[in-house]
């Protein structure tokens, strides 16, 4: 009898100890989040929970997405492949139509015994499309949960609540200070599902992916978040694009122009600009608050010590800089995005200027969880940087963006811009998609002092050698990647 009890005791101990050695993963995506957060040095931002996470891990100042728009950026993050390796540059094409058998990050964890679950926007799987069923142990939670008491509409790849889209005369407002309760916001519903799942999953080894949909347009959040910022103190950036910048660089922010009272062409006025910036900041603080609920749930369930937490924004955003808005470019402000990784045994409360690409996250998480890395991966593990933030593992981060007329097949466009961030520079080469030798435009910006570009140096004689060097380096990197 005693022996049986003893065996039962040791078995329990073994199970508990065994579990403790394998870390959980809380994977948090935030849509359109700029690296303009308190912990990133923007002291006017009220982001206490993201700051709290940064104290537990390593903050990357120079992390870059592979293409500055939702779906391609997320495809790269989740497959570990560059957009060229996937062959998709648009929002509509589901990645499995091009690479049906690729093992995604979540799927790899699932195949290695993890319980993988998701809520909110992780993949951008096309409008009205389903989520990637192969990645998850159970279907996405929105497809199971009925959010009974709130009117629900479906937009894109996540269930969005009506409160997120106030409108006038059928046209959506770009920003809105809401007096509805916070729980009517989609992101609060996502946080609720996520915290419930953390409680339910606390005795299993999980990979939980939570994708928040703000601060993506429209900038709607409850009043208490708007009240955190004094609009009169918000300054509107200079409406000036860099000297000698080619026209192809910036898009015309059509995404924003669809909204109520935004002019079809030209710059936005000061008042509209200030309201948009205020609304964006408020939405960021609302998301920060939801992230706090997740961190609290980990602590309350005794999981804080043994959970790897990754926080990332899918790309940057221009909030009035150059007189421009939104993403869709190769500029530093569009490609640079937040990345914070907190993991057991790694450095805490440190910031790094080491270059990182989103394709590096997949191999990093494999290393942190002690899983073998699949052979298809384009990125490199960031674990050396997580141990020592002074370490640099790459000399460039590469992004790309298509432009021009559609080629009329397979959603390809006639021009592809490749952009490479090095220690001090951003070098961008726009070339014909079908005839890469034909270069359409070259850009060189010195970002040693600021993320805002002031002058395209590519045509200046004193930079001729630097342009030649970077041009060769880019060509070499692209050919190695293929
Ligand atoms: Ca996005």
TrEMBL record:
Gene Ontology terms for molecular function: iduronate-2-sulfatase activity; metal ion binding
Domain Sulfatase N-terminal: 23-370
TM ranges: none
Top-level taxon in the UniProt lineage: Bacteria
GO CC field: cytoplasm
Coiled-coil stretches: none
Sorted UniProt keywords: Calcium, Hydrolase, Metal-binding, Signal
Classification via Pfam families: Sulfatase (PF00884)
CDD domains the record matches: iduronate-2-sulfatase
Cofactors that this protein relies on: Ca(2+)
PANTHER family linked to this entry: IDURONATE 2-SULFATASE (PTHR45953)
Family from the record: Belongs to the sulfatase family.
Name of the protein in question: Arylsulfatase A
């Amino acid at each position: 009898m005693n022996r049986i009890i003893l065996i039962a005791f040791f078995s329990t101990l073994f199970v508990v100890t065994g579990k403790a050695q394998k870390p959980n993963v809380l994977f948090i995506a935030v849509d359109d989040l700029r690296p303009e957060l308190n912990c990133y040095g923007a002291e006017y931002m009220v982001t206490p929970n993201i700051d709290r996470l940064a104290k537990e891990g390593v903050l990357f100042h120079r992390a870059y997405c592979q293409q500055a728009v939702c779906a391609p950026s997320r495809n790269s993050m989740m497959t570990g492949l560059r957009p060229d390796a996937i062959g998709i540059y648009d929002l509509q094409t589901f990645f499995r139509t091009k690479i049906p058998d690729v093992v995604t990050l979540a799927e790899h964890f699932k195949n290695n015994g993890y319980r993988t679950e998701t809520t909110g926007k992780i993949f951008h799987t096309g409008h009205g499309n389903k989520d990637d069923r192969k990645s998850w142990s159970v279907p996405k939670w929105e497809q199971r949960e009925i959010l009974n008491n709130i009117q629900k509409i479906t937009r894109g790849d996540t269930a969005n609540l009506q409160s997120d889209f106030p409108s006038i005369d059928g046209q959506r407002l770009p920003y809105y200070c809401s007096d509805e309760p916070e729980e009517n916001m989609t992101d609060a519903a996502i946080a609720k599902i996520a915290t419930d799942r953390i409680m339910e999953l606390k005795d299993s080894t999980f990979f939980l992916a939570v994708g928040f949909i703000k601060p993506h347009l429209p900038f709607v959040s409850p009043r208490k978040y708007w009240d955190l910022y004094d609009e009169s103190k918000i300054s509107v950036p200079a409406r000036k694009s860099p000297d000698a910048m080619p026209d192809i660089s910036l898009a015309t922010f059509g995404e924003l122009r669809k909204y109520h009272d935004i002019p079809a062409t030209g710059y936005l006025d000061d008042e509209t600009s200030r309201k948009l910036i205020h609304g964006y900041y408020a939405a960021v603080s609302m998301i920060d608050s939801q992230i706090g609920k997740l961190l609290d749930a980990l602590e309350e369930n005794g999981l804080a010590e043994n959970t790897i937490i990754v926080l990332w924004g899918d790309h940057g955003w221009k909030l009035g800089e150059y007189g421009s808005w939104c993403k869709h470019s190769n500029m530093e402000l569009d490609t640079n995005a937040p990345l914070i990784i907190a993991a057991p045994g790694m450095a805490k409360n440190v910031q790094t200027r080491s270059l990182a690409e989103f394709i590096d996250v997949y191999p990093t998480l494999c290393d942190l969880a002690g899983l073998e890395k699949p052979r298809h991966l384009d990125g490199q593990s960031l674990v050396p940087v997580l141990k020592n933030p002074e370490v640099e593992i790459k000399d460039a981060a590469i992004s790309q963006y298509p432009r021009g007329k559609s080629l009329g097949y397979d959603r390809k466009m006639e021009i592809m811009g490749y952009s490479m961030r090095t220690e001090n520079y951003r070098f961008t080469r726009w070339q014909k998609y079908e005839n890469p030798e034909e270069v359409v435009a070259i850009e060189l910006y010195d970002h040693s002092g600021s993320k805002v570009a002031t002058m395209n140096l590519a045509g200046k004689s004193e930079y001729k050698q630097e342009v030649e060097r970077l041009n060769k380096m880019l060509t070499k990197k692209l050919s190695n990647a293929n």
